[in-house]
Amino acid sequence: MKFKENLEMWEKFPAGHIATMEQLAELLVTAQTSKNVPQSMWGRLRRVLERHAPFDSKTKTKDAERETQRCRCFSDIGIYPETVEDLISAFVKSRNVVMKFDGRFTIRGKNSDANYIENMIYLWCEKLKLFNNKKAISAAFQNWQSDEDDRQLAEAVDRVRYDPSIDPQQTELTKLVQLIVAGAGNPSDTARNQSAAETALSSFIYRVKNHMRGQWKHGAHLMPIFHGRQGCGKTTLVNHLLSPIEGFDSEIGFEMLRDNSSFYQLSKMPVMFFDEMAGIGKADVETLKGVMTSTGRQMRQAYQTASVKTVVSTFIGCSNRDIRTLIRDETGNRRFLQIDMKHTGREEIHQIDMLKIWRSVDENNVAPIYANKQLVQSVQHQQRYQSPIEEWLESVSATGPTKAANLFANEYRHWLDAHYPGDTKFANAQKFGLELTRLNDDGLTNRLSITKKQGVNYYRIV
């Protein structure tokens, strides 16, 4: 017998009639197993229970309210929750609430958010007169979100876990770089660039996989930057590369580095994808490099107190412009490796098995960036930004030993006025001398010879 029919039968009982225990059990079971019950029917159930159920006469009102409440809970969320934790689990399951790792929610397939869902739970509890402690409900819902993050993260870690039997020679990774890396003019340089790209991509995957499982490899941060013309397939490639960990990456801009509430995502999201590097400023470069080398940073989640959090994110990017024009840092670019990309079609990119590539990288081994350090450095040396002083050194004629002040006034300043007039006001002899010394000491030029007389450096251009 259905709930509605059973209820109508009880409503026809004459005044003073008391139902049997079997009739009560049947009514409660049909009520508990009914779905989408109109609000009015619960009021009717409470009234017939109070009039005709075999309850103690002294407590029949309370018993009727209690049994009605239990039936409503079972009907709506499938259980009668004894704790707020049970309530949250049953409620989100009954509403088909899906939470993504990036914090997005859906309810029965429609977009929603955490605040809306939490308010739904409050109102549901208010309606059923159940768990009137909003703080406890809020705490339980936040803990459910944290547990759900952990569950999804564990699943992703297991999905991309290293498997030595899948691709021991990393042939799929080689296939990828041969498909996308642009020719360098001669076969040996092209082969070197392909090998460096393999190292950069495997190092990226290595760090992401380790950070997803809480094994911190902050020193192994090498950011691959895909460089090529608009429409060459850079964004398609990165999206496909990240497909094995879909939902664990976030596409962002550099304004994130200046926004405290967004900055907090660095302590959670495994991958941050800068789809266009062209907007990066000098201050952004310094912040980016600082984050890449930090184990922890002070961060503040919205509406919470700032605290030091572990940096989880690993960076990847795309650029239409050469990084030498973006990352103008004379001290080097050792945290970045540009992968010059030729035009590659969407179909070609999607034929690469990215999951095979991820599972071919051994997260328990030495970081690829350490195993191939010299290879990476040789490519980075060619990609690094050359200061105006370096450019000038490549074109200036040989000189005898000269003080920095004289060389600056008689030679360099005139060249700087002609080539970089906007930089002239920031240049002076002291900065000029320090930069010449740094270039010489770091082995970045073979055109300088420095001698010291009475504590003063003399610079000879050879």
Which parts are unreliable, with pLDDT below 50 for 5 consecutive residues or more?
A: none
Q: What characterizes the major β-sheet?
A: 5 strands, parallel
Beta-strand percentage range: 5-15%
Radius of gyration: 33 Å
Helix content: 40-55%
So what's the overall shape? Answer: elongated
Between the first and last Cα atoms, what is the distance in angstroms?
102 Å
In the CATH hierarchy, the architecture of the largest domain is: 3-Layer(aba) Sandwich
Q: How are the strands of the biggest sheet laid out side by side? A: 5-6-9-4-10
Question: Looking at CATH, which topology of the largest domain would you report?
Answer: Rossmann fold
Would you count the extended β strands for me?
A: 12
In the CATH scheme, the class of the largest domain would be Alpha Beta
Structural class label:
alpha/beta
Domain module tally: 3
On the 0 to 100 scale, the average pLDDT is 91
Q: What is the tally of helical segments? A: 20
Pfam family, one: VapE-like_dom
Protein name: Virulence-associated protein E-like domain-containing protein
Describe this structure in words.
Residues 220-358 form the Virulence-associated protein E-like domain. This is Virulence-associated protein E-like domain-containing protein. With 462 residues, the protein is of the alpha/beta class. It is built from 20 helices and twelve strands. The strands form four sheets. Strands 5-6-9-4-10 form a five-stranded parallel β-sheet. A three-stranded antiparallel β-sheet has the order 1-2-3. Strands 7-8 form a two-stranded antiparallel ribbon. A hairpin with a 2-residue loop joins strand 11 and strand 12. The longest helix has 26 residues, at 134-159. The chain is elongated, with a radius of gyration of 33 Å. The model has no long low-confidence stretch (mean pLDDT 91).
